[in-house]
Amino acid sequence: xxxxxxxxxxxxxxxxxxxxxxxxxxxxxxxxxxxxxxxxxxxxxxxxxxxxxxxxxxxxxxxxxxxxxxxxxxxxxxxxxxxxxxxxxxxxxxxxxxxxxxxxxxxxxxxxxxxxxxxxxxxxxxxxxxxxxxxxxxxxxxxxxxxxxxxxxxxxxxxxxxxxxxxxxxxxxxxxxxxxxxxxxxxxxxxxxxxxxxxxxxxxxxxxxxxxxxxxxxxxxxxxxxxxxxxxxxxxxxxxxxxxxxxxxxxxxxx
Length: 255
Prior knowledge:
The protein is α/β, with parallel strands linked by helices. The chain is 42% helix and 18% strand.
């Protein structure tokens, strides 16, 4: 299996481009075959599917907000079927909840675990996507992310591991990948600029242009169970150029 077969790109990376056709044109021109959509793309899945088909693209997965998961689960299932995807990831808790106490993270883990059980019955995997704030210790030295997964228990809740956010949170991604390898279903492939650089991009870098060793981390993510490897840049100054650069670097790694 080649890198291109498991490589996708999170469309959030290109959100500053004028419209959806421009975003997808840039993705296709960069060489990608798969995309990870954002929640709003699930509002009109027929249109999204038509735009993807017109460019020879397919959806690998999608992010979806907690409100949508709570309020319109049936519509999400239908959107997944239209787009032929079977992985959903909740990308983040609202800003006002990111400092919540241990009990809040446990409650979220239980809720997401229950949602994951129900969606699994529809052939869809639900997972959680991390940033760095979930690494804050909440109780007895345990982090919010640990409490969330502990509360999810034996549910099929998966994890989309954002490696660069783990590193930004001073965590060793390989240790976390090994610890939760039973939950890892996907990985975000992004890079960190050297300290003090790319400040207008919030310190992020195109994949391969930063400090992370993605030749090593790619295999670690795949070994832990990541089925899709999803390129993302949270604030690129040149979205289309960033997509091209990351694709070129990853493609150079070979199969």
